[in-house]
Amino acid sequence: MNGVLKRHSLGHRLALLMVLFCLLFSVLTAGLRTWNIWEQNRVRMDAELQLLEQVYQSTLAKAIWELDKPAVQAHLDGALRIASVGRIELRLAGHGQEPEVQSRQRADWAPSSLAPSRYCELAYSPYPGGREVLGELLIQGSEPLLWRELRDSVAGTLLTQLVLALLLAGLVSLAFNRLVTLHVRRIARHLSRLSAATLAEPLRLQRPARQDELDLLVSGINTLQGNLADHLARQHRHEEELAAHRDRLADRVRERTAELEALATAQQTILGLSNQLIHAPYERFDQHCQLCLREVAQRLRARQACWFKRHAQDAPYRLYQGWFGGAEPALGVMTLPTACAQVLEALLEPEVPSTFATREALLAAFGDAAEPLLALGNEALALVHLRIADDEYGLLLFGCAQGGRVAHRRACPDQHDHPAAAACVPPPGAIARSADLPGGAAQRQCATGRTVAQRPTHGPGQPTLLR
């Protein structure tokens, strides 16, 4: 382990990173310094060439005008004695002939785009207001001079930066090793020996307390050991309790899953039947209502489903839609007495299905008003008062024999008992649309193959069963 720590010591890696950082910093600073020196030398060389251009524009132009060739040659030779000038070229106008070109350049000069250059026209004014263009002057700087000056300036700077970087890296590595690495190794050895039997042994460092990061780490490790010991004791106790709860939880999950699956099925039924009623054609709306009654009744395993409506507030409820599972509807089914309807309206909460699992439960809830409902011959009933705001849409009734799904519900109102029963309640607009059908025999096809027809009469009429 010691060999691994020495070979991969954090202090050594920190020193290496410090050296690399210092080298990178030195390279960056040297690069910036080099670029700065290059620009300064280039600006200085350009200033010297500009000054030479200004001087030659007058003196060299005068020598050319006076045809003083020795003076012209002296100007060209004298320009090369300036260190910044790498090449000078004089192009004399030929006035219709080939221009005469004279040039001087240094031996180490080469065409370059890095060194500055100056270009100007040579003009002379022999008299006030006159101007004669005599030729062109091109002065190019010396790139080798720029490189020599750059090397001389950068070499000393780069060497100084490297020495400082190495000294700083060594100092930081030594201080880090004595102040951090030794104590971190001791902490690592303590943690490597840690087990359930040694959790009670606290960690201590061989140094004075300084309340720094290492002391915070030691305090945290000792706190962690104490918490871990307490946790192990609690875990053993919780495992015993968990084993007892696991079996009860599995049973509850199975029960809840079955309830959720039943609720999901009911919700799908509600959505499907509601969508069917909403999109039903106007002329076939009653047939779709009949199909919805049959679908809900069959899902509830009911033996009959009846929708009672009335045309006035004090009028009795009459059968509007009905499904009787293949049986002949009794005449008593066609009308609910006004007294029975008033009790139902008073006790039933609108739009909330209420179930009665036994005949006794129905008698206990409605008293004598339950006699017409008991006459239907059902052992269990589910009732819904169809009322939305101030709009009255009648009563919905589902009945079944003993053992049907309704019989297994609680004998008290519950809005979750029969979610499928609410599916056969058409939207308000759909109910109004059906109620406004034109007069005449409004026929409704039953799911059993029979048709219950409501025929207009001059007095109170009774629904009849049509074959």
Key features of this structure:
467 residues, alpha+beta, Beta-Lactamase, 3 domains, 50% helix, disordered N terminus
Brief account:
The chain is an alpha+beta fold and 467 residues long.
Sum up the overall morphology in one term: elongated
According to DSSP, the number of beta strands is 13
Low-confidence regions: 1-6, 406-467
The CATH architecture of the largest domain can be given as 2-Layer Sandwich
The number of distinct structural domains comes to 3
Helix- and strand-based class?
alpha+beta
Q: Which percent band covers the strand fraction?
A: 15-25%
- Per the CATH scheme, the topology name of the largest domain is Beta-Lactamase
Describe the structure.
The chain has 467 residues and is of the alpha+beta class. The chain has three domains: 2-165, Beta-Lactamase (2-Layer Sandwich); 202-279, no CATH class; 282-466, Beta-Lactamase (2-Layer Sandwich). The protein is 50% helix and 17% strand. The chain has ten helices and 13 strands. It has helices at residues 2-7, 10-65, 69-80, 143-192, 213-278, 285-299, 338-347, 359-366, 371-374, 428-435; strands at 85-92, 100-105, 117-124, 132-141, 304-309, 317-323, 335-336, 354-356, 380-388, 391-400, 442-445, 451-454, 464-466. A six-stranded antiparallel sheet has the order 7-6-5-10-9-8. A four-stranded antiparallel sheet has the order 2-1-4-3, covered by helices on one side. It has a three-stranded antiparallel sheet with strand order 11-12-13. Helix 2 packs antiparallel against helix 4 (143-192). The model is unreliable at 1-6 and 406-467 (pLDDT under 50).
